[in-house]
Amino acid sequence: GKLGRYPPWPGKIVNPPKDLKKPRGKKCFFVKFFGTEDHAWIKVEQLKPYHPHKEEMIKINKGKRFQQAVDAVEEFLRKTKGKDQASSHNSNEEKNRRNSSEERGKQSAGEEKRKASLSEGKLKKGTGEGKKRISSVSSERGSKSPLKRAQDQSPRKRGRPPKDEKDLTIPESSTVKRVMTGTVAGFKWPPSVSEPVKDSDPHFHHFLLSQTEKPAVCYQAITKKLKVCEEETGSTSIQAADSTAVNGSITPTDKKIGFLGLGLMGSGIVSNLLKMGHTVTVWNRTAEKCDLFIQEGARLGRTPAEVVSTCDITFACVSDPKAAKDLVLGPSGVLQGIRPGKCYVDMSTVDADTVTELAQVIVSRGGRFLEAPVSGNQQLSNDGMLVILAAGDRGLYEDCSSCFQAMGKTSFFLGEVGNAAKMMLIVNMVQGSFMATIAEGLTLAQVTGQSQQTLLDILNQGQLASIFLDQKCQNILQGNFKPDFYLKYIQKDLRLAIALGDSVNHPTPMAAAANEVYKRAKALDQSDNDMSAVYRAYIH
């Protein structure tokens, strides 16, 4: 997703501090987010009623922190329900007294109604675009300017709501009405080609790269797997076909799954495959890494060839082009286990030439091949929230649907073999260059007498705000470089991206400069630390 984009989060309207002025412009409420200490001014079109969107929100979100937020909402609702019932009798008496009043009473009642409408959440459905999340409101100055910027940059003209917006009153008691989900920071509810299928898993999305009659390439949002239908335009989309249960859990494929390579990424992937009920056979160059997964129910393969020969679909995730080739072409390698109908999915981040060569030798033996490198890190791998870029055999892509749902949040099918490798290198080139720029900025702040923490706070309030930026800066500020994405691998990806540019005579000066900084960090023994350790290249 975009930088600074977050899922919807439950919150409640509260009274702002007396010394905190309300931002000018569009109507907004002061919201406290459950499960956190965050408060923010949130515009009305960014708010949705809690109950109608509760189930959808729970399916979209993952993580302990979000679950704690939902628990806090439910506890709040339980506590307030009794209070509302006890106060309803008094409310009716008060209403009768107001109704019996003369003209002054009518005016008063009208005023009360207006206030109630404001506080009880007569909210508008918003599109969710162009929003920012303002974390804790620490001072008047700290909260006003980011909000003013957000309003100034809004694509809509003031006082002119879109045609499809309608007033939405929350049909709950007066206290409960103040509980809503805020679609902060530009979250969009998941798109669909047609009506969402009831049993589809809403947190996972496939995207199919299709060529339409127009010269421009377009992505079509598609769900789940299996059933391919022709659209009027001649492009195709994959629709859900009973791939998930009604509650959103994944129905695992009945095919036997093999997995080769249990590094930072592979370990999380295998763990999630097992959790979702897949039958998995594992192999790793250092066999002791397999022990944990054997305890979780995986089977042990003695060689890559054995895993491929005993499984229907075998995935591999190794470090670089040399390791990927050795795994397939080496002694007791993947190729020796390939026979007609066997499927091989390479999830390693390598160059297009390497993956094309591997595809050719697999297919020459009657096998089916899919490249599927993943964008993410160890944490996202563990959480089953990777982004999968696939290319090659599209039928195999569909057969991998339940596996991709277990390990990722989004999948893209990009066409012929080599496309995913190129796209993955470009993505990591951007990420690696950005990481080097972050380190450069933090060290420049330090040597010029500026607070690094304040720099991070400023960036987090601006358009660059993102989980990646915050986490990597925190790593640096805390001196914690435990690997989430090995520095040596991001340098490898930069090197391969530069070579990709060379192959088409395209300049990559930013990546080249970043690559030199990572090479220096490697010379300073930072290879096996996190990519954020590139910071140390600037302080020696």
Automatic annotation (TrEMBL):
Subcellular location: Chromosome
A cellular component term, taken from the record's GO annotations: chromatin
Region (Disordered): 1-23, 79-175
SMART domains referenced in this protein's UniProt entry, alphabetically: PWWP (SM00293)
PWWP domain sequence ranges: 1-53
Record's keyword annotation contains Transit peptide: no
The keyword Ribonucleoprotein is annotated on this UniProt entry: no
Regions of compositional bias (Basic and acidic residues) in chain numbering: 79-132, 149-169
InterPro entries for this protein: 6-PGluconate_DH-like_C_sf, 6PGD_dom2, 6PGDH_NADP-bd, GLYR1_PWWP, HIBADH-like_NADP-bd, HIBADH-related_NP60_sf, NAD(P)-bd_dom_sf, PWWP_dom
Highest taxon, organism lineage: Eukaryota
Main location: nucleus
Cleavable signal peptide: none
GO molecular function, one term: NADP binding
Entry's Gene Ontology BP terms: transcription elongation-coupled chromatin remodeling
Keywords assigned by UniProt, alphabetized: Chromosome
Family per record: Belongs to the HIBADH-related family. NP60 subfamily.
Protein name, entry field: Cytokine-like nuclear factor N-PAC
Lineage summary: Eukaryota, Metazoa, Chordata, Craniata, Vertebrata
